[in-house]
Amino acid sequence: MAERILVAMSGGVDSSACVSLLQKQGYEVGGVVFDMSPAHHQAVEDARLAADFFGVPLTVCNLRERFSRQVIDYFCQSYLSGETPNPCVRCNPTVKFAALYEEMRRGGYDRMATGHYAGIVRRGETYYFTQAQSAQRDQSYMLYRLPQEIMARLLLPLAGMEKPQVRQLAREAGLPTFDKPDSQENCFIPDGDYPAYVEGRCGPSRRGQFIAPDGSPAGPHRGIAHYTVGQRKGLGIALGRPVFVRAIDPASGDVLLCDAGEEYAGEIRLREVCAPDPAQLTEGAQVLVKIRSVAKPCPATLHPLPGGGLTVRFATPQRAPAPGQSAVFYRDGLVIGGGIINRPRPENGGAAGGPQTTA
After folding, report:
1. Is 76 a catalytic residue?
2. Residue spans in the chain of domains classed CATH 2.30.30.280
3. Has 11 been labeled as part of a binding site?
4. Is 20 annotated as a binding residue?
5. Which of 31, 218, 262, 287 could form a cystine bridge with 58, CB 3.0-4.6 A?
6. How would residue 354 be classed by pLDDT, with cut points 50, 70 and 90?
């Protein structure tokens, strides 16, 4: 009897190619699509068309309340707190993959699959994500917080493929949407206007002053939700030279600016650290670290803090590590952990939450 696989579908090229590959390998495939916000209506309709095309049963799972509570509320509060959120990192373990795992078990499937570009390997009793063959498409950064119980049942068929190969596979399968554009980075704000979304949902964000590199007030700004650490364009201020956002103070509402070159940091502190095997996050452990999804990995050392959290010291200073984003650790091609970048405030100390297992 063929093994039964439940695929998370969106009607896009990647998830559709995932279905096609698994069918060719002899699996019995079912699909599920997640309706997470009003912006997901088209994805649901496209998934229905793709499921009909491949002849697979499709479940539509309404996750709007869960997504709103776990992801959208977090996203808005993060911006209002002077941080730069990463909704995918939050959504994957709390909503998307949690629901996929629940639907897999409810439907009596053996395993589950998605069209993410990453790999999974097992070392002893522990599962690790690996980087995809396509460095440009690699999504291992976004998946680092998934627990072991999900990784043990997860298939990622696109790990060894490049995007042109995936589109060719969809074309050969006869899928009408083989040339459909890639999905947006933020699935619930299609127009990409994050400040307008946050302030439309929560009201105006805290206002204060731009603080010039010399410490003097440089004029009012539009509200802290409009800015992120490292930003240069769109500040709406002229000091006669390029300046960057160095930090955002949610208490005062001030946005602190710096001159070019001063936005680099030699170290960061992390909270909410997690790892497949926490024993690997030892004092002085050498890793490659990514401080944003599209960043190039850089060498660094890890230093656990009393009471939890980690200090990450870079071999060379890194540009504008943004509080609220993730720092993800790699060693020998494996994702060995990561955490959330803290605001650089003395009172944050070691940050809440030491290394946790993702088991």
Report:
1. no
2. 204-259
3. yes
4. no
5. 31
6. very low
Query: What pLDDT was estimated at residue 307?
Result: 84
Q: Which of 76, 91, 258, 274 is catalytic?
A: 91
- In the numeric block, which tokens belong to residue 322? 């943004």
The third-level CATH classification (topology) of the domain covering 264-357 is Elongation Factor Tu (Ef-tu); domain 3 (2.40.30)
CATH T-level assignment (fold) for domain 4-173: Rossmann fold (3.40.50)
Please tell me the pTM assigned to this model. 0.92
Residue 58: its pLDDT value, please?
Answer: 98
Query: Is 202 among the catalytic positions?
Result: no
| Alpha-carbon distances of 325 from 70, 132, 196, 266, 292, rounded to whole Å | 16, 21, 20, 16, 7
User: Binding site annotation covers 115?
Assistant: yes
Q: Which of 187, 202, 258, 298 is catalytic?
A: 187
**Closest C-alpha to 34, from 8, 53, 13, 54:** 8
Domain with CATH 2.40.30.10 in the chain: 264-357
To the question of whether residue 60 is assigned a binding role by annotation, the answer is no
Q: Is the pLDDT of residue 357 over 60?
A: no
List pLDDT tens digits, range 243-277.
999 999 999 999 999 999 999 999 999 999 999 99
Q: For residues 130 and 144, what is the distance between their CA atoms, to the nearest angstrom?
A: 10
Written out in words, the top-level CATH class of the domain with range 204-259 is: mainly beta
Higher pLDDT, 269 or 353: 269
Interatomic CA distance for residues 324 and 220, integer angstroms: 24
Please report, as a single letter, which amino acid is at residue 182.
D
Q: What do you get for the CA distance between the two ends of the chain, in Å?
A: 30
